Amino acid sequence: MRTVREGSFAPDGCIERTVFSERRQLEYRILIAAPKDKAPEEGYAVVYALDGDATFQTMAEAARLQTRKPKGYDPVLVVGIAYPSKEAFDLERRCRDFTMAVPKAALPPRPDGRAWPPNGEADLFLDFLEHELIPDIAREFPIDAGRRAIAGHSLGGLLALHALYARPGLFTHYAAGSPSVWWGENEVLKEQERFAAQWSGERELHLLLTIGANELEDMLEGANEIHRRMKSLSGRGVRTEYVRFDGEDHVSVLPASLGRIVKFVRS
User: Fold this and answer.
1) Domain-by-domain residue ranges, the chain?
2) Known catalytic residue: 215?
3) Which residues touch 60 (CB under 8 Å, ≥6 apart)?
């Protein structure tokens, strides 16, 4: 991974860095909110926030406010992963990065009738995180490897679940907001089955699952099913917290769910 250009980013002097991924052969905008407080002895907890143009500023502000002393949590480093388009939710890039490969017949028709954008490269995106971005951040900042979170919403929530089931060693905390469990005829539920069958509890993992109570029925059913299945793994070191926000829909739930993550990564 190489830096193409770098500058500052609101709020409060955050870093904006455009990088080129050698593995993906694609550019990403990396947004970094570094704490002003000195790192604890074990290093900073870190949250990798997907859809950075939509989520980074809320996450950075939550980290700043919730880590204020004397009653706040230890400082948290926030790393937003965004796209050159600067769209809040860049559908073409997130379909490509956040979804698992499934047959075309497994995808529902889109409401506007258009074909789905290129998709199914979630594992290549995780390769970018594992082999390029995460090591690069760890070289620049003192990081607590025992407090490393990934946070995503909708398709990003799907990616967070896929990361948990496919690479449980990559993060310690997984925050899946309003996850698109429906993708590929519930492909992620098949992944959960394989994970549950193989997981031996060799390390502690944490899942934060959030949803708006007023979301579409298929979104609610998907989140409920993930929660039901994950509860059975509590005896094998997987701690699941499920939060339904009354009165919130798929978009309005975002600030509330993002505000939980700073506390969650310290659990």
Assistant:
1) 2-265
2) yes
3) 11, 14, 31, 33, 78, 80
Q: What pLDDT, on a 0 to 100 scale, did the predictor assign at position 193?
A: 98
Kindly name the residue from 154, 178, 180, 257 that is annotated as catalytic.
Answer: 154
Q: Say which of 16, 215, 248, 257 is annotated catalytic.
A: 215
Measured in whole angstroms, how far is the alpha carbon of residue 80 from the centre of its chain? 10
| Architecture (CATH level 2) of domain 2-265 | 3-Layer(aba) Sandwich (3.40)
- pLDDT band at 78; cut points 50, 70, 90: very high
The tokens of 246 are what? 């009354």
Query: Does the model's pTM come out above 0.90?
Result: yes
Catalytic residue status for 206? no
Beta bridge partners of 4: none
Q: Is 250 a catalytic residue?
A: yes
Q: Which among 96, 75, 77 has a CA at the least distance from the CA of 85?
A: 96
First to last CA, the chain: 31
